[in-house]
Design goal:
The chain has a single domain, classed as Aldolase class I (TIM Barrel). Helices cover 30% and strands 18% of the residues. It is built from nine helices and 16 strands. It has an eight-stranded parallel beta barrel with strand order 3-4-7-8-9-10-15-16, surrounded by six helices. It has a four-stranded antiparallel β-sheet with strand order 5-6-14-11, with no helix packed on it. Strands 1-2 form a two-stranded antiparallel ribbon. The protein binds flavin mononucleotide. Residues 21-24, 46-47, 70, 72, 74, 100, 128, 131, 166, 193-194, 217-218, 221, 244-247, 266-269 line the site of flavin mononucleotide.
Length: 314
């Protein structure tokens, strides 16, 4: 049986639902010896800003149980070097590119997206409104639905490319943020970014990370991410979703699809195994074959929930 792995996220069509998550796969090119970049559904590149950014001083990452904390601080080469140096090589490698962008202000976000414009070498723009590791920017928008809606509406006219908005899990109501993003003009939602955490070296009594707090990622966050995808899918049944958080196996991909994702992004797992994204494409096809699933898109939003009791059992 040949499995149809194609997925449609509104106007964004991907050859399969496996993308790599921003900040965990460099600009894609660094991974070319481990993965055929053209075999992936998409590559979301490291968050791009108007000017190059050095990020936070080290230490910037530490391991945790079932995951890691990072506070890289959005280090990147800046939009000009990306467009001039990285994008032509990604295009040559026939990669499907998602340009992840960020700014400190609405005007900066808009300026980066204007610079990308309608570049045909870019499949979609992803707004990171949810980075917990910078003093300004990201989180200010991600935590306030009104500010988020206004930001998306301000950026929307700057490109005709599909606009993905990446949501923060560091909120009490992810659905309110999702609605605001869609009302502002988002075509696709991606969730989740990292959860704010703190790890302490008890001998020195100092934070293990220079920025004090960091973003938690990896398998530890998967159930939170799956729950949030499910909540957003229930509230906004027609909005395409990238599910992100702790994916390491084809079974994890299937779990996100059942919860309501149309595609996924693989993050921290690429640090442990740089070839994992390519393998997941093959493993997912095999999983579908074994389970008689002809089209991977048929898995999306197929969760069978049980009615919840009126009162909690004691
Ligand atoms: C080291 C590191 C850097 C990251 N940088 C970015 C970034 O620049 N932009 C962004 O939107 N998300 C960034 N993220 C968040 C990931 O894209 C992803 O949403 C998160 O790690 C959860 O997925 P995972 O558990 O599979 O890693 C970063 C994550 C890590 C671990």
């Amino acid at each position: 049986m040949s499995v149809d792995l194609t997925v449609h996220l509104g106007r964004l069509t991907l050859k399969n639902p496996i993308a790599t998550a921003s900040g965990t796969f460099g600009y894609g090119l660094e991974f070319a010896e481990f993965v055929d970049l053209s075999s992936l559904g998409a590559i979301s590149v490291k968050g791009l800003s108007l000017r190059p950014c050095l990020g936070n001083p080290p230490p910037r990452i530490c391991e945790t149980d079932a995951g890691m904390l990072n506070a890289i601080g959005l280090q990147n080469v800046g939009i000009e070097e990306f467009l001039g140096e990285k994008l032509p090589r990604l295009h040559e490698a026939r990669a499907t590119v998602i340009a992840n962008v960020w700014g400190d202000t609405e005007a900066e976000y808009r300026a980066v997206v204007e610079r990308i414009g309608d570049d045909p070498r870019v499949a979609a723009v992803e707004l990171n409104v949810s980075c917990p590791n910078v003093v300004k920017g990201g989180m200010v928008f991600g935590n306030d639905p009104a500010a988020l809606g206004a930001l998306v509406a301000a950026v929307r006219p700057a490109t005709r490319l599909p606009l993905v908005v990446k949501l923060s899990p560091n909120v009490t109501d992810v659905v309110a943020a999702a609605r605001a993003a869609v009302e502002g003009g988002a075509d696709v939602l991606s969730l989740i970014n990292t959860l704010v955490g703190l790890s302490i070296d008890i001998e020195t009594r100092e934070p293990k990370i220079g920025f004090t707090t960091g973003g938690l990622s990896g398998p530890a966050i998967r159930p939170v991410a799956v729950r949030m995808v499910w909540e957003v899918r229930r509230a906004l049944p027609h909005v395409p979703i990238f599910g992100i958080g702790g994916i390491e196996t084809a079974e994890h991909v299937v779990e996100f699809l059942i919860a309501g994702a149309n595609a996924v992004q693989v993050g921290t797992a690429s640090f442990r195994d740089p070839g994992i994204s390519g393998r997941l494409v093959r493993d997912l096809a095999r999983w579908c074959e074994r389970h008689g699933v002809e089209r991977v898109s048929d898995l999306t939003a197929t969760l069978k929930t049980r009615p919840r009791p009126e009162k909690a059992y004691v």
